Amino acid sequence: MHYIHFIVARKIDVCKSITPTVDHILAKSRHVEYNEALCNEEVFPMPNKNDMRLAVLIDADNAPRTQLKSIMEEIAVHGTPTVKRIYGDWTSNTMDSWKDSLLHNAITPIQQYGYTKGKNSTDSAMIIDAMDILYSERVDGFCIVSSDSDFTRLATRLREAGMKVIGIGERKTPSPFIAACDKFIYIEIIRAAHAPKGNKPKPRHDTRQDKPAAQAAQAEQLHLTRDIIDALIDTIEDVADEDGWAYLGEVGTLLLKKQPSFDSRNYGFSKLTQLIQAIDDIEMEFRPNLIANNGQLIYVRTK
Fold it and tell me: How many domains does the chain have?
């Protein structure tokens, strides 16, 4: 009988000794969840996108020489170009004009002979180099400068390997290549963004602009169509809380996943905030960042 009492008492002592451990685990779990919530609010510093190492591969047969400096400046916004190569047949007289631009931007020219007349010979060389760079594990992402749809499979393969892929090309770029990239930027928008301030056209949605300005804008900017507005509204609703409010940062991220070519500059706005403010169907609210005690958070909701 005494033995049974001893066993029961021992079990009670063991349970008591376990309880603080359980409480500690629960407290630690709550602490982790709280920290994760703070991280989701961007309180703790996350890796800066400018620290992302990028391999820049340029198809000289499908890239404008005159915009090379502007393109490199745009790429610098998204990361640090650690590998910079441009592919073409540099024995051709038509490539002589590239020399100064390559020197000024420290871009390495890669020779690729044109084995067949009228055939773009740079594709295979770029693809082989891209895979070599991928397996070297020296970069975090790739920037492919071309309007050629032949790089669609390459972009898809790089993303499958966990790489970020940014595409840069003209509006004539086929949609499959655009969709294969995480983000696609039109060269026409880069050209407009880096034009002298006095020559920048006003947004096309501004009916007060004069006819010459409207004609200049037509080549560089798209209409803010109902389809784009509906895409914004749908995206807001996808990430909205119970009251219908959505954090603008999450809206922009999801919208870019849905439409890699989306860029507020396409429609004459330098920031997504400005574009949202121009849409009557969406209201905006600025909230203080109580956790970080620094700056404001922007929330949007459909009316």
Answer: 2
- The CATH number assigned to the domain holding 159 equals 3.40.50.1010
Neighbours of 237 (CB within 10 A): 13
pLDDT tens readout for residues 149-185: 999 999 999 999 999 999 999 999 999 999 999 999 9
In a domain, 209, yes or no: no
Please check the confidence at residue 109 and state whether its pLDDT lies above 70: yes
Nearest to 223 by CA among 274, 158, 272, 275: 275
pLDDT digits over 232-248, tens only?
A: 999 999 999 999 999 99
159-188: b (≥16 Cβ within 10 Å) or e? beeebbbbbbbeeebeeebbebbbbbbbbb
In a domain, 174, yes or no: yes
CB 188 within 8 A of CB 171: yes
pLDDT tens-place string over residues 123-147: 889 999 999 999 999 999 999 999 9
Residue 245 contacts residue 286 (beta carbons within 8 Å): no
| Residue 114 belongs to domain spanning | 49-194
Alpha-carbon gap, residue 75 to 72, rounded angstroms: 5
- The residues, ordered by sequence, that sit 6+ positions from 243 with a Cβ below 8 Å of its Cβ are 301
Query: What's the pTM?
Result: 0.69
Which residue bears the tokens 């972009």? 155
Read off φ and ψ for residue 271, nearest 5 degrees: -130, 155
Cross-strand bridge partners of residue 88:
111
Question: Do 258 and 190 lie in a common domain?
Answer: no
Helices 248-258 + 226-239 axis angle, to 10: 120
Q: Which pLDDT score is estimated for 142?
A: 97
Tell me: do 92 and 142 sit in the same domain.
Answer: yes
